[in-house]
TrEMBL record:
Transmembrane segments: none annotated. SMART domains: CoA_trans. Its EC number is 2.8.3.12. It comes from Nonomuraea soli. One of its GO terms (molecular function) is glutaconate CoA-transferase activity. Keywords: Transferase. It comes from the Bacteria. This is Glutaconate CoA-transferase subunit A. The keyword Nucleotide-binding does not apply.
């Protein structure tokens, strides 16, 4: 059985780690686990994310050395303010990929490959702002392709609607948000969920079983654990609180009771 607490998960993390955070923008982010990191003394982290408030919170708290992302947004609020401030002040490094390139980086890591080729990024400024990227020639034609390096992570943190005590995870909303790729790409994966149940097939169809227990090191039952981001169909994004997050001075916001 793999049931843990948020504190147990944070105790397994170390400063300097590369941590992948599942979800997308302001949707189904593992916010309970992110808040656990905020309360810790962890620092110098590299965060790999289709970014949202997870990235902004960690940047504002001084936990981040580098962000690897295709975007950092709150969806209904286009620009994540704390990430933007960190970038403008130069307090973090940023590796920015096209969304498709980012997916290929996850796929490469999930399949234990050093890179995967793609056309995404060709002819764009992605190559200019990432001078370390290389191209490869197809062995079957003369075509040049971008060689996207694997986004290998020490740990992945994801939030799902349901899980069982063995580590199988289930999504019930409209989109898996690549959480399965994060779980496969990381050396360890920790899943928070709205509820730990005995029989996942009573909750949803077979196709909703997203993450296998073979990929999961621990499960945290965290009702409301994605709030203030959405976790459909359990609850929508809390737009009022998200707006408050973007307009309240950082220390005042972080000190407010949740």
């Amino acid at each position: 059985m793999k049931v843990m607490t948020v504190g147990d998960v944070v105790a397994r993390l170390e400063s300097g780690m590369t941590i992948g955070v599942g979800g997308w923008g302001s949707r189904r982010k593992p916010m309970a686990l992110i808040e656990g990191i905020l309360r810790s003394d962890l620092t110098d982290l590299t965060i790999v994310s289709y970014g949202g408030a997870d990235v902004g919170l960690l940047c504002a708290a001084g936990k981040v050395r580098r962000v690897v992302a295709p975007f950092v947004t709150l969806d209904s609020i286009p620009l994540e303010p704390h990430f933007r401030k960190a970038r403008q002040e130069g307090s973090i490094a940023f590796t920015e990929y096209d969304e498709g390139m980012f997916m290929f980086g996850l796929l490469a890591a999930a399949h234990r490959l050093p890179f995967l080729p793609t056309r995404a990024g060709l002819g764009s400024d992605v190559m200019r702002v990432n001078p370390e990227l290389r191209t490869v020639s197809s062995p079957y034609s003369d075509e040049e392709l971008v060689a996207v390096p694997a986004l290998t992570m020490d740990v992945a943190l994801i939030h799902l609607n349901r899980a069982d005590a063995r580590g199988n995870g289930q999504y019930l909303g409209p989109d898996p948000y690549f959480d399965d790729l994060y779980a496969k790409a990381a050396r360890q994966t920790f899943v928070s969920c709205e509820r730990v149940v005995d029989d996942l097939l009573k909750e949803g169809p077979l196709q909703s079983l997203l993450v296998s227990r073979a990929m999961v090191s621990g499960v945290v039952e965290a009702p409301g654990g994605a709030w203030f981001t959405s976790c459909e169909p359990d609850y929508p994004r809390d737009e009022d609180w998200q707006k408050r997050y973007t307009t309240t001075p950082w220390q005042e916001f972080i000190d407010e009771p949740r």
